[in-house]
Write a structure and sequence with these properties.
The chain is of the alpha/beta class. Among the domains are: about 150 residues, no CATH class; about 70 residues, no CATH class. Helix content is about 50%, strand content about 10%. The protein is built from 13 helices and six strands. The strands form two sheets. Strands 1-2-4-3 form a four-stranded mixed sheet. A hairpin with an 8-residue loop joins strand 3 and strand 4. Helix 4 runs parallel beside helix 5, helix 5 packs across helix 6 and helix 12 packs across helix 13. The two termini are about 30 Å apart. It binds zinc ion. The site of zinc ion (ZN) has 8 residues, from helix 13.
């Protein structure tokens, strides 16, 4: 069970602005009672004891006003609390570009099991607009939940693409995250039309017809894997809009026959002749030039890896 912890400075900032909003809404009794408790703490001489008391007053009001709920609920919607995470730490930042959530791994000693935690950075003013806070948290926690999933195993170790492909990866992944939230009736970071317009800026070069279909595929797919997103980011034309014939988006995969928008990248076969042989053992007429959808490719990788002597 992941423990959720809030940084004391963040708690203080959130309580402070919440009191400001409540006093604007005429909840003066509640605000006065908070200030009485705070004044009592400030009756102490400056020093560690006074800081501790002030922190305790803010923490008590943070939980009394249930200001921890958005984080607790978003974490539970995405299954983070029941995951193998040790803790979810939340602290404040000042600017939007510093916001986000990162999965951090630590091994207390060589050979010991990795301890995973999430560091979430939020501007306290997000609390002023609950929808926007909730959407931000669900979006960030969806990405964290992906990193914890089997489809992303190895994603942290072998890292993400670099350069422009990295930006494309981020756009693909984040769009896909909000698409999955939308299908569950949840609001993510941005609505679909905003993602569509960002996607158009990043992938419009695929050409009309191709990029719209690629977007719909990304928005509507159940969980895509790191490998699929990686392939699409590094080689968008081959993966998302293969221009020559058989691997055009929407063309059935020769193996599973499902309409396919993301194909295993053309260069995977030379690195894994065992996968090629395994596929040919079941589909005698198939050759790497026919391609395979990302899912089929991964299925065969899983079979090959589970059969390999360890
Ligand atoms: Zn397939």
């Amino acid at each position: 069970m992941a423990k959720i912890e809030f940084d004391a400075g963040f708690v203080e900032a959130v309580v402070f602005s919440e009191m400001w909003r409540r006093s604007g809404r005429g909840e003066s009794r509640l605000v006065r009672s908070f200030h009485r408790e705070l004044d009592a703490a400030y009756g102490e001489p400056p020093g560690e004891a006074r800081d501790r008391q002030s922190r305790a007053v803010h923490a008590a009001w943070f939980s009394r006003l249930r200001l921890d709920r958005p984080v607790v609920e978003a974490a539970s919607q995405l299954g983070l609390q029941s995951s193998r995470l040790e803790r979810i730490f939340v602290h404040g930042v000042l600017s939007a570009h510093e916001e986000g959530a990162d999965l951090m791994g630590m091994r207390p000693s060589a050979g010991s099991a990795e301890i995973l935690s999430v560091v979430t950075r939020i501007r306290s003013q997000r609390y002023a607009e609950f929808d926007c806070l909730e959407g931000f948290l669900l979006h960030e926690f969806q990405l964290v939940s992906d990193l914890l999933s089997a489809g992303f195993s190895g994603a942290r170790e072998c890292s993400f693409p670099s350069g422009p492909a990295r930006e494309r990866y981020r756009l693909l992944w984040e769009t896909h995250a909000d698409g999955r939230l939308a299908r569950r009736g949840l609001r993510g970071l941005r609505p679909k039309d905003e993602w569509f317009s960002l996607f158009g800026k990043g992938f419009g070069f695929l050409g009309s017809g191709y990029f719209e279909r690629a977007f719909e595929w990304l928005w509507n797919s159940a969980a895509l894997s790191h490998l699929q997103l990686y392939g699409a980011a590094c080689d968008p034309r081959a993966s998302l809009a293969e221009e020559h014939g058989s691997r055009a988006p929407g063309t059935p995969c020769p193996l599973c026959r499902f309409p396919t928008h993301v194909w295993a990248s053309a260069d995977v076969w030379s690195g894994r002749p065992d996968i090629r042989d395994l596929i040919q053992s079941r589909f005698a007429k198939w050759s790497p030039g026919d391609g395979a959808c990302g899912e089929c490719y991964e299925r065969f990788v899983a079979v090959a890896d589970s059969a390999a002597p360890t």
